Give the backbone structure.
Amino acid sequence: MNPITYSENSVSSKLLKFLEKNYPLSKWVFLVDDQTHILCYEKILSSNFYDISIEIIQVETGEENKSIEQSIQLWETFTEYGFSKNTVLIVIGGGVLCDLGAFVASTYKRGIPYVLVPTTLLAMVDASIGGKCGVNFLQYKNQIGLFSECKRIFIDDIFLKTLPEKELICGLAEMLKHALIADYNFWKKIRKNELHNISIKQIKEATQIKMKIVLQDPYEKNVRKILNFGHTFAHAIEHLFLNENCNLSHGEAVLWGMVYELQLSVKHLKMPKKEAKEVIQFIKQYTSIPNWTSEQIKEIIIAMRQDKKNNTTNINFTLLSKIGQATFDCFLSEIEILEVFQEVNQSIK
Ligand SMILES: NC(=O)c1ccc[n+]([C@@H]2O[C@H](COP(=O)([O-])OP(=O)(O)OC[C@H]3O[C@@H](n4cnc5c(N)ncnc54)[C@H](O)[C@@H]3O)[C@@H](O)[C@H]2O)c1
């Protein structure tokens, strides 16, 4: 399992110490996007790295860059610069960059070492943890990818200071998901918490929920599937937006996805209505669910068929029997999914 270093405002010195100890003779290469270059890289560079020879590669921000085309460009750059097993890649970014950087590093020359420095809340509590990496393909989410282990993850709340509220909400979405699938007490804490007061302690609690699940089932053969709660809908909705060239953050899609899957949980696993309603009300403080057209619903259901976890006829969901208790491999028909769309559409009218 990937070791994690948590810190408050001292990521720069911790990272330097780690690199000096473990990669003293390697080339250190930083991967950033245009946002994290300005807002996060400087925080790491500081005086600690003064006089040390490093290289930096910048890509454009955005989900559309989590692509094979961007991966090819990076492999080309790695080759031109002569990167080898004696190169360590340090990824400084949100979930998009963590997924992309990890994918490119673990496939180039059958894998070079890499370190993740997640800079969004979502990447800290979810995307950097658990070894999944990959890129989107033909507008389908995470269609190409693999499991791969980074050398270390550095989580520091200093990066949250520049994070827009919208991105904090996205991180909160995955923290909420962790609570709903595995920890009722964590849900109680999240419920009370102020969005702008998320502490390193809570981040650690969220990462530990995910790590505990991943440790039991690193390759998603069984229990790890519960981490997909909300994601069957979310990934299909993201596909729709990618197809229409519209922006949608992963976290917002997950919030929407959880609303539909809470509704399915009430119907199919007898989740108490009261609990589902409380969670849906909490979610609605942060986002409004779109009223989809029938054409869009059709598109979303078609995209769901691409989900890696389906069987030949039905779509695979993780559902809740109550807050803190999830069941994976709940297979539902397209009719049942259509019904839930209609119910949620009715409730938001
Ligand atoms: N591998 C996994 O297990 C896993 C799990 C969950 C999500 N994901 C993936 O994560 C991606 C979403 O990640 P995300 O929500 O972090 O989006 P993102 O990486 O696109 O980051 C959102 C925006 O915030 C900017 N940013 C990053 N750090 C910042 C900071 N400290 N201050 C200001 N701006 C900052 C980025 O440049 C970007 O513009 C999706 O592609 C999703 O599929 C992967």
